[in-house]
Amino acid sequence: MKNKTKRTVKYAFIKSLPVMAGYLLIGIGFGILMHSKGLGILWTAAMSVFVFAGSMQYVAVDLISGGASLISTAIMTLAVNARHIVYGISMIGKYKDTGKYKPYLIFALTDETYSIACDTEIPEDVDKNKFYFFLSLFNQFYWVVGSLLGSAVGNILPFSTAGIDFSMTALFVVVFINQWKASKKHFSSYLGVLTSVACLFIFGADSFIIPAMIVIVSALCLYKLLEKKEARYEQ
Amino acid sequence: MNNNLYILLTIAVMSLLTALLRFAPFLIFGGKRDVPKMIEYLSNVLPAAIMGMLIVYCLRNVDIMSGSHGLPELFAIAVVVILHLWKKNTILSIASGTAVYMILIQTVFA
Q: Do B19 and A107 touch (CB under 8 A)?
């Protein structure tokens, strides 16, 4: 292996370490959760390989064990993963000349991979394209391995796994807090929660997602337009 | 329909739509076109709102009026919040909150 490639793989590995612990543990949690709902190791592997989206996979366990319709699944996927459009927009520049790696890079653009990829400075002696590639690959590897472990271990745990699906709630709370801390105005955070609660009461547990999304997007656009108007008045 | 077919189709739907969402920006804006300001703005503020929505989604079946009245959830979320604001460690926060919840619903609120 060429020296530059070796250096690149090593650099990508080091940058992926923060993700490794997280993906292994949450992956294991996902595997255990799948197992607890009677969904075996093959389905678990298939999801972690072909969907590769943490929150969505957790929600999927819920959907499948509840017998959700394919339409419901489609809508939930769009709602839950809409934020991935965000990542793509920010990475258009960085992923521009990545050639043969591009399709996989885009496919594997998860929350964590995005946060590292858009933040990392790539030194001169490291191959940019291979770096992104190996970063994404390592991350997906940790995720798949975690899922498989969780699924396999589900059988031999000495305690009941009832309630383990709370790990999904916990994950979202953590990310919510991180996003809260990352912004000065918290309009969007408040909006998300309040709108969802209101829609939950009005439309019920099974039908509140679409109305909530419509209101959220509309409110955010309105907020932006009003901000612009204010700015013009102040001139 | 056959259960295995159902699961397969569900995974296929999720896989395809997720990939679509990831590829969309590159397909639409990958060329020379500029990203409209509104899209760029949404892409920055939407995630926070969606996370809020997802938390509500997780708690959608909680009944405050009966059963455990949502108390295990309340305690466990409090644990997650406090721990995360204090230690800022994602794994610790998630694991602790989940453990607290599991213990509560298997013992006190069984």
A: yes
| Cβ-defined contact of B101 to A163 (cutoff 8 Å) | yes
A42 reaches B (C-beta below 8 A):
no
Q: Do B18 and A53 touch (CB under 8 A)?
A: yes
Subunit contact B22:A106, Cβ cutoff 8 A:
yes
Chain A residues whose CB is inside 8 A of the B42 CB are 86, 217, 220-221
Q: Would you say how long chain A is, in residues?
A: 235
Q: Which residue of A has its CA nearest to B34?
A: A89
Q: How far apart are the first and last CA of chain B?
A: 35
CB contacts < 8 A, A to B, total 239
- pTM of the full structure: 0.78
Residue pair B73/B62 in contact by the 8 Å Cβ criterion: yes
Task: Count Cβ atoms below 10 Å from residue B1 Cβ, excluding itself.
Answer: 7
Q: Cα distance from B87 to chain A (closest Cα, Å)?
A: 12
ipTM of the complex: 0.86
Q: For residues A222 and A19, what is the distance between their CA atoms, to the nearest angstrom?
A: 36
Alpha carbon distance A114, A19 (integer Å): 11
Nearest beta carbon to residue A163 from set B22, B53, B105: B105
Name, in order, each residue with C-beta under 8 angstroms of A11's C-beta and a sequence gap of 6 or more: A123, A126, A131
CB-neighbour burial class of residue B97 (10 A; exposed 0-12, middle 13-18, buried 19+): buried
Q: Is B42 helix (H, G, I), strand (E, B) or coil?
A: helix
Q: pLDDT tens across B11-43, in order?
A: 999 999 999 999 998 888 876 667 778 877 877
Q: Which residue has 């031999």 as its token pair?
A: A156
